[in-house]
């Protein structure tokens, strides 16, 4: 059977899922003109370390159509907790629908039966395209739009980031190699929403955080 496709960013969540699924999975990495483009290097390295096939989908040609907010636009990356209203500037318009549609296309062309995404419960407040009802609706749309049946699977959709860290610690996920920071500098800034969430997850999970943060 052809290996399923994992939407892979090299972040904490998708790397945990990669370690759960390897070696029976293929990783799909996206370059969409994101500010934190360094995540692509981290993702490529992690996929190689896991011994899985991976592809980088370069969709920078449409990045100007998504130029809104702080990730693909010109706003500054906000600092603070994800619960804050200003974190909505980190939303990339329709990102998950675009990426998962392309992943489904790769799955169909290779006769794979499923596509995995590592969206989790902590994303629901800020990112509408990480919510369970969106995942269910898109899964139905993929099924209706193709003769082949490709299942969309989101095993963490009701899990917290701390739950994911706990699971990953048992799998010995090399979290020190993962990348989360939206600012995309040499080290994690420790202040943006995703860095704050990352720190909190390790603390709540009772797992030592191996991340190097800026002083």
Describe the structure.
It is a single chain. It contains 6 helices and 5 strands; from the N terminus they run E-H-E-H-E-H-E-H-E-H-H. It is α/β, with parallel strands linked by helices and 215 residues long. The chain has a single domain (5-205), classed as Rossmann fold, CATH 3.40.50.620. Strands 3-2-1-4-5 form a 5-stranded parallel β-sheet, with helices on both faces. Helix 1 (12-21) crosses helix 5 and helix 5 crosses helix 6. The longest helix is centred in the middle third of the chain and has 15 residues, at 95-109. The radius of gyration is 16 Å and the shape is globular. 38% of the residues are buried.
Structural class: alpha/beta
Strand order of the largest sheet: 3-2-1-4-5
The pLDDT mean sits at 92
Query: Which sheet architecture does the biggest sheet show?
Result: 5 strands, parallel
- Estimate the global geometry from the Cα principal axes: globular
What CATH calls the topology is Rossmann fold
Beta-strand portion reads 5-15%
Distance between the termini: 48 Å
